[in-house]
Design goal:
The complex is a heterodimer of chains A (507) and B (323).
Chain A: H1 2-14, H2 17-35, H3 41-48, H4 57-81, H5 91-102, H6 106-140, H7 144-159, H8 166-181, E1 183-184, E2 191-192, H9 207-227, H10 240-270, H11 276-290, H12 302-318, H13 320-326, H14 332-343, H15 352-355, H16 357-389, H17 393-412, H18 415-433, H19 439-461, H20 468-471, H21 475-506
Antiparallel strand pairs in A: 1-2
Chain B: H1 2-17, H2 22-26, E1 35-39, H3 46-60, E2 68-72, H4 79-86, E3 94-98, H5 101-108, E4 120-129, E5 131-135, H6 143-153, E6 157-161, H7 167-179, E7 183-187, H8 191-199, E8 205-208, H9 210-218, E9 222-227, E10 252-259, H10 265-280, H11 282-290, H12 300-320
Parallel strand pairs in B: 1-2, 1-3, 6-7, 6-8
Antiparallel strand pairs in B: 3-10, 4-10, 5-8, 5-9
Helix pairs in contact in B: 5-12
The chains are: A mainly alpha (507), B alpha/beta (323).
Chain lengths: 507, 323
């Protein structure tokens, strides 16, 4: 077992005092950076990159990977407690995490998120250890048609996301797609939908700006309107015993989402085009679709917290894979890690696993240790996070507003985005009043900009022949499954209608 | 011969630095807040790799008292970045890492109203050559075999690149014209994605910078067929240039740093000093050599002349391509 020896050496390396200290500091810093709205792993890694020049390269990348891990855990915290997505990777966590918190079950949501993150990270680490070279070639076999088929599948799972109101869901998806099309077109390079000739629209609508507007500001407006400011603060009690009970419940009601998120998230993370945000959204959709009680989703289902949290941790390990083996970053954060590695004199790419064995396995070993450390540190901080919820709403609401604004500004440092965010918040409030589901629009703005260029690239490849999506060995089955899922509700509806008509004459 | 030219160019580069009177001026002005370090391309490609590398050198050597904050704005072949920097409300804290779309995008999209001469010259860090790559499984090892294969495919030969009017598309268009080839061109959002899809054989050939393809070349996956540099590259001594093949053409991507329009002279002097130090660092000189870039150091006036020349060259090239 060559791999296991290498891994054991790697773990020993990451348990050396300096490296272990790097892991503990990195995870803790990452946890808080992730918990700050607007600041995610990208910012954390970018800000702290200079610090790493003080230590040897091996320890430096371990430190950055630990921040990455910590931030993935931390993103869930503000999603759950405040309803503001802590990072784009934790947007899907608000869907069910926030309702749970409002029911006074924030501790259940936080424990579920921590456990799911741990399992997601562990599954990804094991897959990474055993199958890295194989998975790298799988990533390469995904060309434009395959990526488009996968995006189609993701949309298919989300048609079911908006409950039974399929027309409203489709409207919401289309709305998101249009927003996603704003900015420069990748294929022709021409600007599109530059509304009112504002230059701010040229860079496209930032996903985090939309998500913070919709979930941070929109949610706050909604709460104020529903309660007229009179929010009964349900003070959740925290105790070791309570946490043990929550752990049991989290395991019982969140295991499905955790498993789906762990595997799907990893796979999506490995594809260089995608990364942790699409991975977490897709896992949420698939978990809901496969659940026996899809009605619970959006109202506080632990599975709905577990799936995106397992997926974003799993995907962040997954996206290291194309970076290390192909030299191509799978996410913005890994792009920064890549820059760091180059300056340390390590060249990511096909040769890295051969030339720099000690470094690679030290890094993989540190993933295992970081993951365990992140779980323990996160669980220890849960009482602190819960404490925030005990504040009266009259204090919490302005705080959410300020954090949303600061978070929106931090992402791009552009005032235009703040106005846009406020508009999205107000728009989301009205859409919600008219019962339009918002999650599909959020998904569409993330996946649209991946789906559109790959669709057009595929059609260029085939000279405009759509059969390219059916005839390729990987794209074909995915496309067919996606189409079946899209048309399944229509078929069901039709059958129900026919059934009723048949019954009537009999009566 | 080639090595001596490289050495000669670096000596010229070094001698140009020596009399530069920047040091004295730079004492006066220092940044008061983080510097918006705009990159004209998406993450992962050649321009982004260089920007990250330069930022790392600045951090490592502690050259700036405020951090350079990388900001990828690759939309619209760099138009997004050009507009962002042109409209910067604080030109003293806004600098841009450029490639040749600095010249081509304002030419192709005249309605953007960008005049490159309004930007502030800071540093020319080097020029990056282009190479034609195929996958080893194609069995193609020479330019003759490549030309034969493309002709045999009759318009179905697929190449990837970073978009119409971008550097690689200019090179591909010239090559197609010179060899009478009919190529299907698929645009991607960056050189990294292009290289990945050649490695996965989703496309059949690319014109990538050596930096983008090097990992796959060293692993034996990519085969270089033709270089678009003036002379053979030291790292690829067996790869013929298109000039040797009888076509008088060479094309390089500029790797330059420019300041926002309206930047004060003091701020410009500060950045010129910082990037001179980065240029002279062992790290950057090592990068130039490892990634096959050619040094092409210029002072501020020479950079402006170079811009004017490049705008004219690209006008001719784009017109010839029917853009």
């Amino acid at each position: 077992m060559d791999v296991l020896t290498l891994l054991a050496d790697g773990m020993l390396l990451s348990l050396q005092p300096l490296n272990l200290a790097m892991i503990l500091i990195g995870v803790t810093v990452g946890l808080f950076i992730g918990a700050m709205p607007g600041l995610g792993s990208v910012n954390g890694v970018a800000i702290l990159l200079p610090v790493t020049f003080l230590v040897p390269p091996g320890s430096a990348i371990i430190f950055l990977a630990a921040i990455y891990y910590g931030a993935m855990y931390g993103g869930a915290v503000s999603s759950i407690t405040l309803g503001i997505p802590g990072a784009s990777t934790a947007v899907a966590t608000t869907f069910d995490g926030r309702p749970l918190a409002r029911q006074g079950r924030a501790s259940l949501a936080l424990v579920t998120a921590a456990l799911a993150s741990f399992v997601g990270g562990s599954v990804a680490n094991i897959l990474f250890t055993l199958f890295a070279p194989v998975l790298a070639s799988v990533a390469l076999s995904f060309g434009p048609p395959e990526v488009f088929a996968l995006m189609l599948l993701a949309f298919a799972t989300f048609v079911g996301l908006g409950g039974d109101d399929i027309p409203k869901t489709i409207f919401s998806i289309c709305f998101g797609l249009v927003l996603g099309a704003i900015g420069f077109d990748q294929i022709s390079g021409a600007p599109r939908l530059v509304l009112f000739d504002y230059n701010g629209f040229l860079q496209g609508i930032g996903f985090l700006v939309l998500a913070i507007g919709v979930y941070g500001i929109g949610e706050m407006l909604w709460t104020i309107e529903q309660t007229r400011g009179d929010v009964e603060s349900n003070t959740p009690k925290m105790s070791i015993k309570g946490m043990a009970v929550d752990t049991k419940e989290a395991a019982k009601r969140g295991w499905r989402g955790t498993m789906i998120g762990s595997f799907l998230g990893f796979f999506v993370g490995v594809l260089p085009a995608a990364g942790a945000t699409p991975g977490s959204l897709m896992s949420y959709g698939v978990t809901k679709m496969l659940s026996r009680k899809p009605d619970e989703f959006g109202k506080g289902a632990p599975d709905g917290v577990a799936a995106p949290e397992a997926a974003n941790n799993s995907a962040s390990t997954g996206s290291m894979l194309p970076m290390l083996t192909l030299g191509i970053p799978g996410s913005p954060t890994t792009a920064i890690l890549l820059g760091g590695m180059v300056i340390w004199g390590l060249v990511p790419g096909p040769r890295l696993f051969v030339d720099e064995q000690e470094f690679v396995w030290g890094l993989i070993g540190s993933f295992y240790i970081s993951n365990a450390a992140a779980l323990l540190i996160n669980l220890a901080f849960i009482p602190v996070f819960i404490w925030m919820l005990r504040m009266p709403f009259t204090i919490l609401a302005p705080m959410i507003f300020v954090l949303s604004i600061a978070g929106g500004y931090a992402a791009t440092r552009d005032m235009f985005d703040i106005w846009l965010m406020v508009v999205f918040g107000i728009g989301a409030f009205f859409l919600r009043k008219f019962d339009y589901p918002l999650a599909p629009a959020v998904l569409a703005i993330v996946l649209g900009p991946i789906a559109e260029p790959t669709l057009r690239q595929s059609l260029l490849l085939s000279s405009g022949d759509p059969s390219i999506f059916f005839t390729r060995p990987i794209a074909g089955p995915i496309t067919i499954v996606a189409l079946v899922l899209i048309f399944l509700p229509a078929v069901k509806l039709l059958r129900r209608g026919l059934g009723r008509r048949r019954k009537r004459p009999a009566q | 011969m080639k090595i001596t030219k490289r050495m000669f160019m670096s000596i010229v580069g070094a001698s140009l630095l020596a009399p530069a009177p920047m040091q004295a001026l730079a004492d006066g002005w220092t940044p008061r807040k983080p510097i918006d370090f705009v990159i004209m391309a998406g993450p992962g490609g050649g321009a982004d790799q260089i920007a990250r590398f330069v930022q790392s050198v600045a951090e490592k050597k502690d050259l700036t008292n405020r951090p350079l904050v990388p900001n990828n704005k690759g939309g619209g072949s760099g138009a997004e970045a050009l507009i962002h920097v042109s409209n910067a409300n604080d030109p003293d804290h806004t600098i841009l890492v450029t490639l040749n779309s600095f010249f081509t995008t304002p030419l192709r999209q005249a309605n953007l109203g960008i005049d490159v001469q309004k930007f502030t010259p800071i540093a020319m860090m080097g020029v990056d050559p282009f190479v034609l790559w195929v996958h080893k499984d194609s069995g193609i090892t020479t330019m003759d075999e490549y030309v034969a294969k493309v002709k045999e495919m009759g318009g179905e030969y697929v190449m990837g690149g970073t978009g119409a009017g971008q550097e690689d598309s200019i090179v591909i268009a010239y090559m197609s014209d010179a060899y009478d080839l009919d190529i299907k061109y698929i645009p991607y959002d960056g050189g990294g994605a292009v290289a990945k899809d050649l490695a996965g054989q989703q496309i059949m050939a690319t014109v990538n910078n050596p930096a983008e393809a090097k990992g796959f070349y060293e692993a034996g996956d990519f085969v270089p067929l033709l270089a678009f540099s003036d002379e053979r590259m030291p790292a690829y001594p067996d790869v013929p240039t298109i000039k040797e093949m009888g076509h008088d053409f060479s094309y390089y991507n500029q790797r330059a740093v420019v300041g926002a329009p309206g930047m004060s002279d003091e701020a410009a002097a500060y950045y010129q000093d910082v990037f001179t130090q980065i240029y002279e660092s062992d790290e950057w000189q090592g990068y130039l050599e490892a990634e096959s870039l050619s040094p092409l150091w210029m002072n501020a006036d020479e950079q402006r002349d170079y811009w004017a020349l490049q705008v004219e060259n690209h006008k001719t090239l784009l017109t010839a391509l029917g853009e």
